[in-house]
Amino acid sequence: MEISEKAILSAMYICQINGKSVFEIIKKKSMLSTDVINSKIDQLIKNQLVNEDRNTLTEIGRNSLHVVLAGGVFDIIHPGHIYTLNAAKALGDVLVVVVATDNTSEKMKKRRPLHTQEQRQELVNSLSMVDLCLVGQEDDIFKTVNRVRPQIIALGYDQIHQEKFITDGCKRINLEVKVARLQSPIPESSSSKIEKEYGDSIHGI
Q1: CB neighbourhood size of 93 (10 A)
Q2: Residue 24 has pLDDT above 60, yes or no
Q3: Assigned domain for 101 exists
């Protein structure tokens, strides 16, 4: 499959989740003309990867995409985040990132995040390797997992989730996933440490 066709399928998958215009995302990601996009969609319909509505994927089309799901707080983006998200994207075709809600972030970090969940979502959405960023669910992380239906769930080096907890939770929603534990080349990088060092330097002035 051509890269441009994969980009069209990826864009349709994203639009089925966020409800945005398929053509808007396709043109942004592939830089193809409208005529070329239409021609490629015709071919994808012929190959039974796209439905006749020209906007949604068939089951074959959806299964042809490898979707990777990653999550975190992402309050202060640092090199460890960039490395981890690049590594996550390399595992598949589409990278969906879930940012924790403000309440969940406070429980995890024992403090309120510096940026709201909407600000953190916008920031992560602006990263080139991220195809879609969503705000998570407070009561059940598997609601978002079920919405995304990924083939791979990528965990950062510092995330406490256990692989068995995730695979067992996915089985309850009839989803088979692979769990990938990603390593960071800068394990000492963390948002909390950066915030503390920055705060200490300000107080030391």
Answers
A1: 19
A2: yes
A3: yes
